[in-house]
Amino acid sequence: MKALLFKEIKLAMHPTTYLFMVIGAMLMIPSYPYYVAFVYTCLGIFFIFLSARENKDIFFTASLPVRKSDVVKSRIITVAIVELLQLAIGIPFAIIGIRINPNAAGNMVGIEANMAFFGLVLIMYALFNAIFLPLFYKTAVNVGIPLVFAGIAVTMYVVAVELAVQMIPFFKTHLDTTAPAMAKYQFPILIAGMLIFALALWLTFRKSAANFEKVDL
Amino acid sequence: MDIVISNTSGDPIYQQIFEQISAQIIKGQLPSDTCLPPIRTVAKELRISVITVKRAWEELEHAGLIYTMAGKGCFVSSLQPNVLNAKRNQLAGEKLAKDLEYYKTLGISLEEIIAMLKKNYDKG
Amino acid sequence: MEILSVQNLNKHYPKLDLKNVSFNLEQGYIMGFIGRNGAGKTTTIKSIMRLVHPDSGMVTVLGKDFAAEEFSCKQQIGLVLGQVSYYPTKKISVIADVTRRFYPEWDTNAFVSYLKRFDLDPDKTVKELSDGMRVKFALALALSHNARLLILDEPTSGLDPVSRDDLLELFQELIENSERSILFSTQITSDLEKCADFITYIKKGEIIASTSKDDLVNSYKIVKGTRVQLTETLLPRLIGCKKNDFGFTALMRTDDLPTVDGLEVAPADLESIMIHIEKE
Lengths: 217, 124, 280
Hints:
Structural class of chain B: mainly alpha
Largest sheet of chain A: none
Helix content of chain B: 55-70%
Oligomer: heterotrimer
Order of helices and strands of chain A: HHHHHHHHH
Largest sheet of chain B: 2 strands, antiparallel
CATH class of the largest domain in chain B: Mainly Alpha
Strand content of chain A: under 5%
Number of helices of chain A: 9
Radius of gyration of chain A: 18 Å
Strand order of the largest sheet of chain B: 1-2
Number of domains of chain B: 2
CATH architecture of the largest domain in chain B: Orthogonal Bundle
CATH superfamily of the largest domain in chain B: Winged helix-like DNA-binding domain superfamily/Winged helix DNA-binding domain
CATH topology of the largest domain in chain B: Arc Repressor Mutant, subunit A
Largest interface: A-C, 23 and 32 residues
Strand content of chain B: 5-15%
Distance between the termini of chain A: 21 Å
Number of strands of chain B: 2
Number of domains of chain A: 1
Number of helices of chain B: 5
Structural class of chain A: mainly alpha
Helix content of chain A: over 70%
Shape of chain A: elongated
């Protein structure tokens, strides 16, 4: 497994994925739809699959002494690492952003980059993974169609969550703020996000591995 | 030891190898107890199948021209001159019998064959 | 000792069925795997490696059940599928650095010496290599983890005659110490005339012969004759009979030969055997 992960990082990782990871810096921008920064990560993940396909990764991997399910596992772990790293990179920028922009009006175009936001982003990742990965491993070739479906789902999710936060007064006052007093309402969302992300990742792996097992390479 | 394989000859390759090595043994070019090269090396050098060489070696052993020492390889048998002569005659006889059959199908008489033989023998 | 044993592989596809594919390969020999395009060569190889899942059947490598001990079986195998074209922009040294981590038996010194022998520059990328060099690179990887069984799918296709000959010579050298075996599929039967010890011939998903090359070649003869000679009694014994304006050419089992008279008989080679059998 370690060898497979090394392979993922050394060979399969697309340079733009690293670039998208630093996009967490966008959380510094005052008044910005912060979800966008993390949607880029999904794009970065798509590039991993695309470049792996273009580079005939399957032919290389097929010649190695590995099980098909391990191939899926290593790729999914890579995906999770990319997602979490980007989130982690985003945190300091979010804090800096809040510090240098003590703007009373807050983020005009979306939710503040607070704990609740990070929890909701984790759920967004969970959704993306759960749709993109099993669909991809149905063929292990098509990357476009899974991206379209996952993209639609992620967009709908982001719009729904933003609308809910902006429209529902309780959410607006408790979630869309960086006031320390509201942290106790936001923290559970972060925890829920982590749990959902982890659980979804496990189920995604199970489903993807089962799909891939049936594919004749 | 020399082996030249012909792809145009109708004879199977193992047969060609057998004939050439046995000729060299009988003529004394390969003295007794000479170690033959390993089968796999011969196959690689001649660019033929290992099995083909094996077959040729088996035929040589069967004819009593070589013997195998387990783990060491194959060696040319030490044959007394009279045995060697007998082998020579036997091999020549077999080949002759085959050729004669062919001449017979062409309807050539024994006298004609002898005459042809003489003529060609003197030439060579 | 048998290095590879394939027993009754079955796999259903819409276009092709593998039907009871069985053959054995002994240690220290080269087996050529022949058949037309789409006859099931690649599918068989992929089924052996479990890249496609056969519906039934069993594969053993050095006596071990492949399905049960996939990891240790794959350690013994060097697999090269088609032309090596993966990660064209990566350097040889990088790919080797990734590959070596998968094999406990990896021998870096051996790898370095194979690179030297094959004239491969570790700083070159895959796409900078010629087709022949790519196969050699894949072989260097396989040999450096001490693979006992090399399974190569069409390694010589696309190579010019000189690099092909070069590669075939290398194959024979690799089996010289009788520890390794090579199974390679090819369309080019002349490759096999030179180096194969055994031939496995697949036609429409069925193995129709798996035997030593010499036996296979000797069991058939090419016969030619005039149109008058092409009688009703002869016809059923001819395989893939090709008629022309002046006579016919066909393949015949050597065993059937004594039953006929007056035909022109010539030794068969793999190519003519394949051409006539495929015509049936």
